[in-house]
Specification:
This protein is α/β, with parallel strands linked by helices. It has 17 helices and 16 strands.
Length: 445
């Protein structure tokens, strides 16, 4: 079908329909093959003129189709049909290329090294003797786990809720407390799955820039012009750039945060972070929802995070969870409690934390020697500006290194600077010089 025929067919099909009707009709046209994958669609302005509606209305339809994975924007080159399955999908999370079979080391996911996680045998044996085991009684959090997490929680909270991991907890928090269609300020860059969850829930995002001390106050103030429903950020060891919120920046942000209904703190790295836990919970106890994941500390198969907030918010979060699993396994909760209260736990965490720091320093030292700029203060990854993320991905893949493209972690479609994100938690010393040399080649365009 030619572009001219596409335009005529679309205009005839969409004439007189509202936003929802146009979205349904476009979905049907794409799924039926009437608009085949790869076909270019008319511009927003042209289609709006032909239909006699505002460009904003067409943009809303295009954005909805994009979130469903049916169309893709190529910037100034227009919009294209890219798929025919409208099932909700985490587009950014699944945007992983095929790096071939020559990969020497996979540096994409910034998760914990399985070899550095604590053994679970004793913890699971202990937790299998849990009282009330196999009961259908909804237990929001076991007494043992609540007691175990309180000792280093960053503020005194009214209520705690256990969830099946950090992202499960975040989904429950956003679904129960934030209305679809409203705006939430989100750090830029941020975790890909955070952006996917927000998109899937129909929550609109406003980016907030970060520097070495945390969220930039002026950027948050700019975002607040959208009348925010919440502010979502990582308080320590940011998953992309490794920033932790400083005391000075907390003071600077306090005057702004009082005007935002919910402050959602996503502590995705948890106790293995090199920085202490921080929170606005003491300053805004009625607004703060603090989510701490234990996956990077105790292991992802324990599938555990803990949420703190007010009693009212906790009841709302639990009400949402009652549509699904309702409660997190008591076996997993008390296994985590056993580990957190173990005499060996702190020594283990200190040792593991030092090992992760050492691995990251291997690479930062090598990049410093080659004059390559990066962001990565602590945590499990480095954020490197490059002339072209596509060229960088191909160059590194050819040399056997799989890394992530920076656009995966950005809410803006056309950033002024390209980046790559390199996970450092599983680095091996024998590959450091070769990896640093390959990164240097990314600048030889």
């Amino acid at each position: 079908m030619s572009c001219e025929n596409v335009d005529e067919h679309l205009i005839a099909s969409l004439k007189g329909l509202g936003i929802q009707g146009m979205t349904v009709e476009m979905t049907a046209l794409i799924r039926s093959g009437a608009l085949p994958v790869g076909i270019k669609l008319p511009s927003v302005r042209k289609l709006a003129e032909e239909l006699g509606i505002s460009p904003t209305s067409v943009s809303i339809v295009w954005n909805t189709l994009k979130k469903s994975g049916l169309v893709e924007s190529a910037g100034r080159n227009g919009v294209w049909v890219c798929g025919d399955d409208p099932s909700p999908r985490p587009r950014r999370f699944e945007s992983v290329g095929n790096f071939g079979n020559k990969t020497k080391i996979d540096l994409t996911y910034s998760g914990p090294d399985p070899a550095l996680l604590p053994p679970l045998e004793n913890a699971l044996a202990y937790s299998c003797k849990t009282d009330n085991l196999h009961s259908y009684q909804r237990e929001v959090i076991t007494k043992e786990l609540e007691q175990a997490v309180k000792y280093d929680w960053p503020y005194t909270a009214e209520a705690f809720v256990a969830s099946n991991g950090g992202f499960d907890g975040l989904q429950a928090v956003l679904s129960s407390l934030i209305q679809p269609g409203t705006y939430v300020a989100v750090e830029e860059p941020t975790t890909a799955r955070v952006l996917d969850i927000l998109d899937n829930l129909g929550i609109r995002t406003v980016p907030v820039l970060f520097d070495e001390q945390g969220p930039v106050p002026d950027s948050l103030a700019q975002a607040m012009k959208k009348k925010l429903s919440g502010f979502l950020f990582q308080p320590r060891s940011h998953s992309v750039i490794g920033v932790s919120l400083s005391e000075q920046r907390m003071d600077e942000l306090t005057s702004l945060l009082g005007e935002i209904p919910f402050i959602i703190e996503d502590d995705g790295i948890g106790p293995v972070s090199g920085s202490k836990a921080v929170s606005f919970g003491d300053r805004f106890p009625e607004k703060v929802v603090h989510i701490r994941s234990y996956s990077k500390t105790l292991g992802p198969d324990l599938r555990l995070a803990v949420i703190s907030t007010t009693k009212q918010n906790a009841e709302s979060i639990q009400a949402y969870r009652n549509f699904g699993a309702s409660w997190t396994s008591r076996i997993l909760q008390n296994a985590a409690a056993y580990l957190l209260q173990s005499d060996k736990y702190q020594d283990h965490i200190n040792s593991v934390r030092n090992e992760y720091t050492k691995r990251r320093k291997w690479l930062t030292d090598a990049l410093d020697q080659r004059g390559i700029n990066y962001l990565g203060y602590e945590g499990f990854s480095l954020w490197i500006p490059v002339p072209s993320e596509r060229f960088a991905l191909v160059t590194l893949a050819v040399h056997g290194f799989a890394v992530f493209h920076g656009s995966r972690f950005l809410s803006v479609e056309s950033p002024e600077t390209d980046y790559i994100r390199i996970a450092t938690s599983s680095l091996k010393e024998e590959f450091i010089d070769e990896l640093a040399d390959a990164i240097a080649l990314c600048f030889d365009m």
